[in-house]
Amino acid sequence: MKVALVHDYIKEFGGAERVLKTLTEIFPDAPIYTAFCVKGSTAHREFKDKKIIESFLAPLLKLGKLYSPLRFLIPVIWGSFDLSDYDLVITSCSWYVTRGFKIGAKTKVVAYCHTPPRWLYGYETSVGFTRYWPVKVYAAIVGHFIRLYDFLTAQPPKRDRIPIRAGVDVFIANSENVRQRIQKFYRRDAVVVYPPVEVEKIQKVSRNLRTSQKEDYFLVVSRLVGAKGIEEAAVAFKNLPYKLKIVGEAAGYSDVIKRLKEVSGGNIELLGRVSDDKLYKLYALAKGFIALARDEDFGITPVEAQAAGTPVIAYNGGGFKETVIDGVTGILINSTDEESIRSAVCEFSKINWDRKRIQANARRFSRGLFVKGIERVIIKVL
Q1: Which residues partner with 314 through β-bridges?
Q2: Strand order in the sheet with 3-7
Q3: Which of 166, 305, 320, 341 has the most other CB atoms within 10 Å of its CB?
Q4: Co-location of 340 and 273 in the same domain
Q5: 212 pLDDT tier (thresholds 50, 70, 90)
Q6: pLDDT at 313 > cutoff 80
Q7: Nearest alpha carbon to residue 103 among 148, 144, 156
Q8: Structural domains counted in the chain
Q9: For residues 67 and 209, what is the distance between their CA atoms, to the nearest angstrom?
């Protein structure tokens, strides 16, 4: 069976790229088709031993950050790929649509959807580029046509037409939250297969550290972009007796690092990108984990924290409602204002958290269950 993988682009290494990496381990011979790949980037380092095939527009898209304003070229980018020789194509899709390539009469297409593009459907985005009115007008015009393209390529392939353009035979959603979005915007059903979390590896590290005392810091792990609640957390911790450590790298047009330094009062520590081993230790030794993104698609990092036995303070919305059990594995809060976060931290400190129950909850999202879920879907579609 010939298998191909398709992914938005290869630049920053985040949750979607962790899913892609596991897919490459399930299908080690499958090439990766992508809009562009930035050599030397954090994502490229993870996939440099794989065959990566970029679109013909890759040199243009990589100039500065043109891939964002040139998003009107999305239909051209994916339409340039001919994947008709493959039996199975698995597309990892989110904000760059990542569908519409050519396929064969017998090619099956499975779409692992991290979310329908947030910028197309009114969800808060990481950069907030539409705060400038010329960009807002441009985005509205481009968005109209891309929405049509996004909907059409989300429907089943019409195999009676030549060439056959890739629709989707089966959708996989990364959460119940995203499954509902797929139903709402595409009118398609989806199977939920939660993203892979390295639960066993994290728990092994935490076992080796279990004799250590928790340290007096809370942890945030996120790309340093807007819409993640990082700035709100930095403001709240300004006058709290705990340090806030932040792991992550800047992405896109984000200027979050500058703003964090302005609002934090020096009570934050920016660690940048760290190795997995160091990250797992940071999870295990943290007093608690902070996750404040509103309407997060799924959110792998709170699950990783729970795998290490560390409870979570999370916004009561999106995927966090599926991964955090209020009062058992963490605290869900209904607002991310300064007072709400501080009150949650005070309440958090009074609870005697059960490490074993927290880790047991994380096992619902293990890498092994992800692999089994993907295999079940593929067997069914073939």
Answers
A1: 291, 332
A2: 52-54, 32-34, 3-7, 88-93, 108-113, 170-173, 190-192
A3: 305
A4: yes
A5: low
A6: yes
A7: 156
A8: 2
A9: 43
Polymer length of the chain: 382
The answer to whether the CB of 223 falls within 8 A of the CB of 251 is yes
pLDDT for res 213: 74
Task: Please report, for residues 94, 95, 138, 142, the alpha-carbon distance to residue 6 in angstroms, rounded to integers and kept in the order given.
Answer: 11, 13, 27, 23
Which has the closest alpha carbon to 85: 37, 30, 45?
30
CATH number reported for the structural domain that contains residue 256 in this entry: 3.40.50.2000
Task: Compute the Cα dihedral for 326, 330, 331, 335 and give only its sign.
Answer: negative
Mean pLDDT, residues 280-304: 94
Please tell me which of 32-36, 213-217, 264-268 the model is most confident about, judged by mean pLDDT. Answer: 32-36
Does residue 136 share a domain with residue 172? Answer: yes
Q: Would the pLDDT of 201 be above 80? A: yes
SS3 4: strand
Distance between CA 379 and CA 382 in Å, rounded? 5
- As given in the structure block, the two tokens for residue 32 are 């990766």
Residue 49 pLDDT: 94
Q: Is the pLDDT of residue 203 over 60?
A: yes
Spatial CA neighbour of 88 closest among 193, 168, 150, 16: 168
What is the pLDDT, as a whole number, of residue 164? 82
State mean pLDDT over 288-306.
94
Q: Tell which residue, 251, 333, 334, 244, has the closest CA to residue 289.
A: 244
Domain boundaries, position 85:
3-196+367-381
Identity of the residue numbered 19: V
